[in-house]
């Protein structure tokens, strides 16, 4: 789609848009349109689009939804909405952006002033998505920093944040001799998540202290995002060579790793033998 060129008949309205006017001869609001950068090559555009395909949803949310909604039968509504909603909206936004060379709000307003609300609504949805996923990326960076240790802190109960209820379940199963678990027993993984990463307070009335480590991780992630887009497509076009290819490599690594874990075959069988009764569940 990046190499599609408007026909000769469409050149005039396109040129008019780029000069600050509308196809019907009216002038666009403002003193003219700001010159916008262009992709240096078709490869950069294709990589930018390919990079949008792989994300946290593929590794985290999609498998969870498949497990929750009957395994492979989840593909039926997924493909249905992909064909009816996802692909048409993707083609619409890509074509509209290529034709007008404007931002999300200005592009819709240029086509029709009444459609300006669509642009604002899409920007609000993008903002909500950014705030949601940026926190998850901050958590991932937090775990990454703690991973550079000989012994992972969530693999034992000898940390400062661990409580007396911390139990290594693997060791307990091997040496328990039929005895029951201690009351309110928790794993070191859960205590690291709740007491070191989130630092949850005991009650809702207590705000708790600020986790400055998590604040630094959040600021670092926002800073990386800023430098990825601060010069528009000039900087984004160079970043996508890494951000669009690296996720595919890591996804393959996770596939190989997941296939070698205990219980992998049971998961594959559950996925290949879908529960068709879930199709009648409106949830």
From TrEMBL:
SUPFAM superfamilies: SNF-like. Na(+) binds at residues 51, 58. The chain crosses the membrane at residues 72-92, 99-120, 126-146, 214-233, 239-256. It is found in: Membrane. GO terms for molecular function: gamma-aminobutyric acid:sodium:chloride symporter activity; metal ion binding. Signal peptide: none annotated. Its main location: membrane. The keyword Transmembrane helix applies. Belongs to the sodium:neurotransmitter symporter (SNF) (TC 2.A.22) family. This is Transporter. It comes from Iconisemion striatum.
